[in-house]
């Protein structure tokens, strides 16, 4: 089904390992073309003070594996004991984020049964005693939305620390860019709006409206539709398995 299909992924290879394994079983040609890279954020003194005062928070929320990795990179630099306060509860979205937290030796208090921030927000609401107005710390990147603040600010004291920044790579593989421009591929996978925007910069002045995209979720879909681009695939299940199944269904229908 995937044999001789060329699939270009705009996600860093380190995040694509499971997806690559799934594709290789079906003999697809996988090409890595990372359109984002993450770097440790420089914290202000106020943000550094947060790490010294974690005992003042009730919940620590992670929405991605990067949020976990970079949080503890800061934490280990700033705090000599490097142990979270015992009373601090932790919440995560997804198995990948959970695994990253477990690598640190922390078992999450709450693992969302869903895949999105809204799912976790709704499950956190159940955990919050009525009118208790808990203090919640979000460990996120600079491009994360403010949905937690918007949805929970009337029920909790929300504070956010951007522990990493998501930026465009300095350079990309020119041969892969040429494959895209000459239509020598089957699908381009988009895992975030920023990956799409960065790809457009590297393609410029080539217009992306004729390209074949598979994207994850409604946020990435909206980024494309706002540019009058309609993806061939929208994977609503925001996981490697979900993207794989959506691509599989797409090629089955085409055949």
Could you give a quick summary of the protein structure above?
With 255 residues, the protein is α/β, with parallel strands linked by helices. The chain is built from ten helices and eleven strands. The protein folds into two domains: 115 residues, 3-Layer(aba) Sandwich (Rossmann fold); 128 residues, Rossmann fold, CATH 3.40.50.10090.
- For this entry, what is the oligomeric state of its chains? single chain
Number of strands: 11
Helix percent reads 40-55%
Helix/sheet category = alpha/beta
User: What is the domain tally?
Assistant: 2
Distance between the amino and carboxyl termini: 8 Å
Shape, please? elongated
Total of helices: 10
Whole-number radius of gyration?
Answer: 20 Å
Mean pLDDT: 90
CATH topology of the largest domain: Rossmann fold
Q: How can the largest sheet be summarized?
A: 6 strands, mixed
What ranges have pLDDT less than 50 throughout 5 or more consecutive residues? none
Strand order of the largest sheet: 3-8-7-4-5-6
CATH A-level architecture of the largest domain: 3-Layer(aba) Sandwich
State the name of the first-level CATH class of the largest domain.
Alpha Beta
DSSP strand (E) fraction? 15-25%
Order of helices and strands: EHEEHEHEHEHEHEHEHEHEH
